[in-house]
Design brief:
Elements lengths: L6 H11 L2 H8 L6 H11 L1 E3 L14 E3 L2 E3 L3 E3 L12 H12 L3 E3 L7 H7 L5 E5 L5 H13 L4 E5 L9 H6 L9 H8 L2 H13 L34 H10 L3 E7 L2 H9 L4 E4 L13 H12 L4 E5 L5 H10 L3 E4 L1 H33 L14 E3 L5
Parallel strand pairs: 4-11, 5-6, 6-7, 7-8, 8-9, 9-10, 10-11
Antiparallel strand pairs: 1-12, 2-3
The protein binds flavin mononucleotide.
Family: Belongs to the FMN-dependent alpha-hydroxy acid dehydrogenase family.
Protein name: Alpha-hydroxy-acid oxidizing protein
Keywords: Flavoprotein, FMN, Oxidoreductase
Length: about 400
C-alpha cells in the first residue's frame, strides 16, 4: 500500500489508476508547457519570512468570503469531466469539499448535472462555473437551473475563447468527441480498475457519459462527433456579456482568468464581486504570466472594491499561503482534488484537501501567524527572489 503523503504521491497514484489519455488531459499544460513550468518557478521563488516567538499555539483558517464563512480560504476549482475520474466524481468532490467546510465550483462541462450533484451533496456550498454558450436563451436557462439548485455564486470563465492547443491529447487520441482508436482502446484495457469502477458503472446505468448540462435535445454521448452550434463556447464573449450576466444573475458574480489590472478595473466597474487571477493551470496560453507575478499590482489597483482570488500551480499548503500573502483572499485548487479523487474516491479527495490545510497549518506555525490576514502584514511580507516588492 503506497503512503500518500503529498501531492506527488497522489498524482502518482492517479497516474496508475487513470488511462493515460485522461491522466495527461488533467496533468499536462499546453504546447511546450512553458506556462506550467513558469507557475512552479513563480511559486518556488517566493519566500515568506517568519516572526519568531509570537507565542501562538493555535491557528485559525476561518474566513469570510463573499459573505459566507469558510473553514479555510480554499475552493475546489471547476474542472470539466471530473465525473470521468471517479464514478459520480463531481458529487464526490462536492461531498468532500462540504466535509472540509469549503465551496466547490461545478463546471458547465461536468458529467453529472448540478441537480444530481445537489441531490447527492445537499449540504455542499455549490458555485457554478459558466462557459457562455452561443445560444443565450439556453445559457440563461442553464443559469436558472444552477440558481434553483442553490448556487449563489457564478464564476464566468473569461480566458478560454478557443480550444487550447494540447498536442498530447491528439497523440493520445483523447478529445471530446472521444473517438475510440486502437491506442485509446489499449489504454483503457491497460487500466481495468478504472474501466470497472468508472466507465463500466456508467455504461451499466445511464450509458456513455455525456456533458450533463447540455439541454436534452443536444445531449450526446462524448463519443458522438457533433457538438451542436447552440452549445458551443461563444468565441466572441466580451464585457457586454458580463454586463448582461450582472443583470440576470442575482447572486455573486466572479470573472475567472483575469491577469491584467485594467481588466480587473473593468470587472469592478461592471459590478462584479470578485475575479480569479488565473493562468488556467497552465493549460490554455503558453506565454501567460504567472498569477504570482500579477496579484500585487491587481490587488493594489482594485483594493477594497473587488474580492481577489487566485489559482494555478498549487501543490502545497505553502503555495496557498504565498498567494494569500501576495493579496489573494482565497485560492482555487484544480488538479489536487482530482488526484485525490482518482487515488481514493471521495475519501481521497477529502484527504487531499485536509492535507493542504494541514500543510498550511504547519507553515503558519513556523511563520508565527495566527490568522490568514496576518500574512499580508509587512512582517511576513512575501519576497520574490528578484528582491522585495
Ligand atoms: C482537468 C481540468 C479541467 C478543467 N476544466 C475547467 C473548466 O471546465 N472551467 C474552468 O473555468 N476551468 C477549468 N479548469 C481550470 C481550473 O479551474 C483551474 O483554473 C486550474 O486547474 C488551476 O490550476 P491547478 O490545476 O494547478 O490548481 C480545468 C482544469 C483541469 C486540470
Amino acid at each position: 500500500m503506497q503512503m500518500l503523503l503529498n501531492a506527488d504521491d497522489y498524482r502518482s497514484s492517479a497516474q496508475k489508476f487513470l488511462p493515460r489519455g485522461l491522466f495527461d488531459y488533467i496533468d499536462r499544460g499546453t504546447e511546450d508547457e512553458v506556462a506550467l513550468r513558469r507557475l512552479r518557478a513563480s511559486l518556488d521563488e517566493i519566500t515568506l519570512t517568519p516572526s519568531v516567538l509570537t507565542g501562538h499555539d493555535r491557528r485559525s483558517f476561518e474566513t469570510t468570503l463573499l459573505g459566507r464563512r469558510l473553514a479555510a480560504p480554499i475552493v475546489v476549482a471547476p474542472t470539466a469531466l471530473a465525473g470521468l475520474v471517479a464514478h459520480d466524481g463531481e458529487t464526490k468532490l462536492a461531498r468532500a469539499a462540504s466535509r472540509v467546510g469549503i465551496p466547490v465550483c461545478i463546471s458547465t462541462q461536468s458529467v453529472t448535472t448540478v441537480e444530481a450533484i445537489r441531490r447527492g451533496a445537499p449540504d455542499a456550498t455549490l458555485w457554478f462555473q459558466l462557459y457562455v454558450w452561443r445560444d443565450r436563451t439556453l445559457t440563461k436557462r442553464l443559469l436558472d437551473r444552477a440558481r434553483a439548485c442553490g448556487c449563489e455564486t457564478l464564476v464566468v470563465t473569461a480566458d478560454t475563447p478557443v480550444s487550447p492547443n494540447r498536442e498530447y491529447n491528439k497523440r493520445n487520441g483523447f478529445g471530446i468527441p472521444f473517438v475510440p482508436s486502437l491506442r485509446s482502446t489499449c489504454d483503457i484495457a491497460l487500466h481495468p480498475r478504472w474501466f470497472v469502477n468508472v466507465l463500466a458503472r456508467y455504461l451499466l446505468s445511464e450509458g456513455m457519459p455525456t456533458y450533463g448540462h447540455f439541454p436534452d435535445e443536444f445531449r450526446t454521448a462524448i463519443t458522438r462527433p457533433s457538438i451542436a452550434e447552440a452549445v458551443r463556447l461563444d468565441h466572441r464573449l466580451n464585457w457586454d456579456d458580463i454586463g448582461w450576466l450582472r443583470e440576470i444573475w442575482p447572486g455573486k458574480l466572479i470573472v475567472k482568468g483575469v491577469l491584467a489590472a485594467g481588466d480587473a478595473e473593468t470587472a469592478t466597474e461592471l459590478g462584479c464581486d470578485a475575479i480569479v487571477i488565473s493562468a488556467h493551470g497552465g493549460r490554455n496560453l503558453d506565454c501567460l504570466p504567472a498569477p504570482a507575478e500579477c496579484i500585487r499590482a491587481i490587488a493594489d489597483a482594485v483594493k477594497g472594491r473587488l474580492t481577489v482570488l487566485a489559482d494555478s500551480g498549487v501543490r502545497r499548503g505553502t503555495d496557498v499561503l504565498k498567494y494569500l500573502a501576495l493579496g489573494a483572499e482565497a485560492v482555487l485548487l484544480g488538479r489536487l482534488p482530482l488526484w485525490g479523487l482518482a487515488a481514493g474516491g471521495e475519501t481521497g479527495a477529502e484527504a487531499v484537501l485536509r492535507m493542504v490545510v494541514g500543510e498550511m497549518d504547519a507553515a503558519m506555525a513556523f511563520l508565527g501567524a495566527e490568522r490568514v490576514s496576518e500574512l499580508r502584514s509587512p512582517s511576513f511580507r512575501a519576497t520574490r527572489r528578484a528582491g522585495p516588492e
